[in-house]
Write a structure and sequence with these properties.
3 domains; 27% helix; GH; Oligo-1,6-glucosidase, domain 2; 581 residues; TIM Barrel; alpha-amylase activity; globular; binds 6-O-alpha-D-glucopyranosyl-D-fructose; Immunoglobulin-like; alpha/beta
């Protein structure tokens, strides 16, 4: 078998993402924990994945579910102790499962000692580790005006006034998440040692790098152009995403990483980059640049969201989705870069509800179709907990039940700027029902036991359950059923490994009939093989045409039992992978 790209463990690995708060509660306090994860490693192994990525488990006031870190070297007590974490890693490694941790270093928590020092006085040695600025002025009521007009991702100004020194600090996310000033070398070195070095020295196999595109802010922090005159704060991302020094920082951090691991060990890094152009993506992920191994693109997970306000849905076509998804991997063609393939994570709703059909009739088959699509594409595959069960979105949640700070922060901003009865608010609720980040954050359904599906014993979970565990969408039920979505994923991941030369590493991706609004079809090649993939994104039988009439087609995988590979009609939500000769 010829592999046309340089092989690496992290290219072929499937990575299973775990949200620690919601995976397994071992001590019945309503929160998942690290001992809970350890107790479920055999389940994860059974699925056939190669690595786990565990979302932040560090000391934190949890304003943003642990993405606000108060101490990089200490486990949040509700999740356990550092020893629990080392045990989890040891037990994972015993099972040949690698461990990837979350590296959240664009910002920390206001509770971090570094920030407390920084805010204590204008002359503190750590003052410059964050962005402190005096007010631009004062309004007629005497309120301080923020230094610039940037808005935070979670609603409102990206600046918060602090009485201690009467200055503002910058937070592009929640008010309790002050951005680090990466221009300060001493600050960078401290970040590396505490958040990267500590964990490498304790044996982690890599990092998922949170908002890895935002460390470098434009000089002078200029005002953003006014793109939405109806609101006080504007989209400033052009001044801090893929900024002037970002590549320098990643190179420096990568070099540091290699000083902290044993000779010969190969770790993986995946950066949450989000948006940019092909050149940006190549700069981050080119092997010779030595920055990141791969990155997450947001194009496909944000189709149907308005650019100005995420919580405002806009119509999208299948063609939009196809093009957006392909942006994740097309940029690597003919380069030494690498890509990722994912449909879900802890910031996203459930993919079957978003891109498939979660109606009882089609949920299973469309989940399997999406799994087939995922394993057919070139790049490292990431699966999010519950995706392997075909979990759908929850239904009918009230604002009081929403835990995610992006959801609640946006609600507060819309209420303030437009009012509770506004059209904006109506649109917000419509969007929340489909894309709330809470959809992916509900407790994992281990079985059908009341009240928490085996997540806790009888404690009330920190967030309400997704009611679907009562409809057979839980691990126990799926492990008993050989036709379940779980076993389909397991099989699909095996197929991916068996045919890795084309499924993992294939190149020369070409859409077939891109404008087709029912079918997603493409071809791709490896050195000596060519494949044709076809997916029906409708609930009806749909005919398709093969790309080349003269070629012969051999079906090697699909999501329906006993398919007739010679038929040119797909059943509802059917997906097929063929070899072409
Ligand atoms: O949720 C989003 C995608 O639609 C974004 O607004 C998200 O906040 C952004 O992708 C950055 O995400 C990461 O950093 C945030 C944290 O809230 C997210 O959970 C994390 O994945 C701040 O640390």
């Amino acid at each position: 078998m010829t592999i046309i790209r340089n092989p690496a463990w992290w290219k072929e690995a499937t990575i299973y993402q775990i949200y620690p708060a919601s995976f397994q509660d071992s001590n019945n306090d309503g929160w998942g924990d690290l001992a809970g994860i350890t107790s479920k490693l055999d389940y994860i192994k059974e699925l056939g994945v190669d690595a786990i990525w565990v979302c932040p488990f560090y000391e934190s006031p949890q304003e943003d579910m642990g993405y606000d870190i108060a101490n990089y070297e200490k486990i949040w007590p509700r999740y356990g102790t550092n020893d629990d974490c080392f045990r989890m890693m040891e037990e994972a490694h015993k099972r040949d499962i690698k461990v990837i941790v979350d590296l959240v270093i664009n910002h920390c928590s206001e509770e971090h000692d570094w920030f407390k020092e920084s805010k204590s006085s204008k002359t503190n040695p750590k003052r410059d580790w964050y962005f402190w600025r005096p007010p631009k002025g004062y309004d007629t009521e005497g309120n301080p005006i923020p230094p610039n007009n940037w808005r935070s991702f979670f609603g409102g100004s990206a600046w918060r006034f602090d009485d201690t020194t009467s200055e503002f600090f910058l937070h592009v996310f929640a008010p309790g998440q002050p951005d680090f000033n990466w221009e300060n070398e001493e600050c960078r070195k401290a970040i590396y040692d505490s958040s990267v070095g500590y964990w490498l020295r304790h044996g982690v196999d890599g990092f998922r790098i949170d908002v890895g595109s935002m460390y470098s802010k434009a000089e002078g922090l200029p005002d953003a152009p006014i793109t939405d005159p109806s609101v006080p704060y504007q989209d400033g991302t052009a001044f801090f995403i893929n900024g002037p020094r970002i590549h320098e920082y990643h190179k420096e951090m990568r070099q540091y990483m290699y000083t902290q691991i044993p000779e010969g060990k190969e770790i993986m890094t995946v950066g949450e980059i989000g948006i940019g152009d092909e050149n940006d993506f190549r700069d981050y992920t080119s092997a010779k640049e030595e920055e990141l191994n791969m990155m997450f693109n947001f194009k496909h997970t944000s189709v149907g969201e308005c650019r100005q306000c995420k919580y405002e849905l806009i119509p999208f076509t299948l063609k939009d989705f196809k093009l957006a998804l392909a942006e994740s991997f097309l940029f690597i063609e003919g380069t030494d870069c690498w890509s990722t393939i994912y449909l879900e994570n802890h910031d996203q709703p459930r993919s079957v509800s978003r891109f498939g059909s979660d109606s009882p009739k089609w949920r299973e088959v469309s989940s399997k179709m999406l799994a087939t699509l995922v394993i057919s594409l070139t790049g490292t595959v990431f699966i999010y907990q519950g995706q392997e069960l075909g979990m759908p979105n929850f239904k009918n949640r009230k604002i009081e039940q929403i835990k995610c700070v992006e959801g609640t922060g946006t609600y507060a901003a819309i209420k303030r700027d437009y009012g509770e009865d506004s059209e904006k608010m109506r649109k917000y609720f419509e969007a929340l029902a489909l894309i709330s980040r809470d959809h992916g954050r509900t407790p994992f359904p281990w079985n059908s036991d009341e009240p928490t599906a085996g997540f806790s014993k009888d404690a009330e979970p920190w967030i309400d359950m997704n009611e679907s565990f009562r409809d057979g969408i839980n691990a126990e039920a799926e492990l008993k059923d050989k036709d379940s979505v779980f076993y389909f994923w397991k099989k699909a991941l095996q197929i991916r490994k068996e045919h890795k030369d084309i499924l993992v590493y294939g190149s020369n991706f070409q859409f077939c009939d891109l404008d087709n609004e029912k079918l997603f079809m493409f071809t791709k090649d490896s050195d000596n093989k060519k494949m044709f993939a076809v997916f029906n994104f409708t609930s009806e039988n749909t005919n398709f045409e093969v790309p080349d009439d003269k070629a012969s087609y051999t079906l090697f995988f699909g999501n329906y039992a006993n398919p007739d590979g010679n038929s040119r009609t797909l059943k509802p939500w059917e997906g097929r992978l063929y070899y072409m000769k």
